[in-house]
């Protein structure tokens, strides 16, 4: 009995030490509609599944009470996000969280709309400025490659028009020495494995292969959480979801 009590005590101490090692952390999300919390047509990203919300039935990827401020905006490019004042909102949120003494991670994901207006290098230049401004405020930029569209070729592979913009994000991450979450590659691998029918069940509307419904934001919010947890092992207040993580990592449809 004494040995059992000792083992239990040691385990409890270990949990307490691990919890104490996690610095109070906040998240600010920057990006377009594939990150944003929209529920209207032509909107809806992974943000709700990552931060948690009533839309997902409060399914969250983060410990309750963790600030997770989604400043992403439908239709945004890296250029319009700044020009229209949305990045000022992001910077104010970052400044506020840093002022509270919280580690503030800032995800940046663009590409879906940038590809419609300019070459990848233009997006990369804008991202570089964003990274520097975030760091100047004490935030930690985390670059995220574009969530794939769920448009398939006849052979079941993804029609990947976003590749050059995902590659540009990777390049800027290397140049600026930031953490990188390759959501583009991970999401392509997953949807190709589960196949078109299951992938389209995650669509915001039946013919919308870009935006996400509640199931979609739950799946890709978890995928993002698993990627960021891998990039910052043992450092972040990420809630485990073993069944969903297992399905994602093994290419099994959850919905």
UniProtKB/TrEMBL annotation:
Record bears the keyword Signal: yes
Signal peptide: 1-18
InterPro entries assigned to the protein according to its UniProt record, in alphabetical order: RhgT-like, SGNH_hydro, SGNH_hydro_sf
Gene Ontology MF annotations: hydrolase activity
Full protein name: SGNH hydrolase-type esterase domain-containing protein
Keyword Signal: yes
Alphabetized Pfam families for the sequence: Lipase_GDSL_2
SGNH hydrolase-type esterase domain ranges (all copies): 30-216
Database matches in Gene3D superfamilies: SGNH hydrolase
Alphabetical UniProt keywords: Signal
